[in-house]
Amino acid sequence: MKNNLLLTLLLFVSSLQAQEQNYSFSLQQAIDHAIQNNYSAINAGRDIDAAKQKKWETTAAGLPQINAGLDYQNNFELQKSVVPAEFFGGNPGEFATVAFGTKHNMTARANLSQLIFDGSYIVALQASKTYLKYYENAKQKTNTEIREMVINAYGNVLLAEESIAILEKNKATLSKTLTDTEETFKNGLIEEENVEQLQITLSSINSNLNNTQRLLDVAYKMLKFTLGIDINAELKLTDKLDNLTTTNLDLAFGQGDFAVTNNIDYQMATNFQEQRSLELKLQRSKALPTLSANVNFGYNAFNDQFAFFQKDQKWLNYSNLGVSLNVPIFSSLGRSAKTQQAKIALDQAKTQLSATEQRLKLEYEKAKSDYEFSIEEYATSKSNLNLSERIERKQQIKFTEGLSSSFDFSEAQRQLYTAQQNYLQSMVNIINKKATLEKIINKN
């Protein structure tokens, strides 16, 4: 009975685990899942958490600091000094050896320190906010890159699936034609070359089909990796290639003014310039005085025996208050050199921001042109596919009736197969090119 119950429990757990490994995503669901579970996205989120802790670390440096300690010293050989012997009743001019202190010393102490003013600390607080903002921007950049990666990987899977479906259809059609042609050849009505030409075309289709099936497996695993799931998990895609193509067909998209400030690369370049500006401010602040204060409390105990924790042990307390003012006066122009270096770095960051702005405008124009071309290419490939299908059907009829050679029929078939692949690729291009344009204008 116990064994049956254990077996049932194990089967139930295995069933749950199997269910957990099954995924079904539309394109948007895949994007949402990847942003949460992609490996790079997870670590980018951890970078933000670490930056928050770094910000608090910087803040805490200017808050009260309390330290305590316990010091013990065993003077197993006391240091000795010499004094005039006459102090102890000896003869003048003679010296006596005397050991001062006790064999055991112990000190219990506590220190409270507080930074009162330091220009560097004020700048560090400002820099910590910029530091956090940098990683928040980096996380957003990671998300936009993951979004584009998912769209590309999702489209590659759909492209491979559609290619396999078309290749299998072409294979079935050609196999029937080859069978009919072989029968006609056996009856002596056509030459053997017609059969051989069809066999060559069929072998090519079989090779492409096998390769595409392997590519489909790789494409699925690439998508799973991008999604952050096990590459051996079951994954089903619910969107279809033609539906996604229709959804992404928008001639008016990207026709407005390009707001470069919305682009995450521009925001990160701006953030970098702010960091350089704060570094310059930090170097300048080092010429200002610093002021701090501390309070010390403690107890000392002395004994020739280790008896510090007995009730009759005497502890002598002490306390003091200290204020420290440090005023930089002259550094042999060392601080000035560091300040000039920081100023040069700031100028470089400003130039880099300008370069980023121009680069993004150029990338936007190219991405918009590529997207518009993909739409035109889609319309052209769709028209060419219809024409190729008509030509192939006519050539097949002529070939069957003996009015056309096998070479002409094979050439029409190859033209049709090329048109089919171009049409599928044009559909994927629309999806991918729009994703690239959306990434540049920061549209999620």
Task: Give a description of the structure.
This protein is of the alpha+beta class. The protein folds into 2 domains: 22-62 and 118-288 and 331-441, Outer membrane efflux proteins (OEP) (Up-down Bundle), CATH 1.20.1600.10; 67-117 and 291-327. 65% of the residues lie in helices and 15% in strands. It is elongated, with a radius of gyration of 40 Å. The chain starts with a helix and ends with a helix.
In short:
The chain is an alpha+beta fold. It has helices at 2-20, 27-37, 39-60, 119-186, 192-227, 241-247, 264-285, 334-400, 406-441; strands spanning 22-25, 65-74, 80-84, 95-99, 104-117, 234-237, 290-303, 316-326. The mean pLDDT is 90.
Please report the number of helical segments: 9
Low-confidence stretches: none
- How do the helices and strands follow one another from N- to C-terminus? HEHHEEEEHHEHHEEHH
- Strands ordered across the widest β-sheet: 2-5-7-8
The shape is elongated
How many structural domains in the coordinates?
A: 2
CATH domain fold name of the largest domain: Outer membrane efflux proteins (OEP)
Beta content:
15-25%
First CA to last CA: what distance? 57 Å
Q: Can you identify the CATH class of the largest domain?
A: Mainly Alpha
Q: Considering the protein shown, what is the CATH homologous superfamily of the largest domain?
A: Outer membrane efflux proteins (OEP)
Radius of gyration: 40 Å
Number of strands: 8
Question: Helical proportion?
Answer: 55-70%
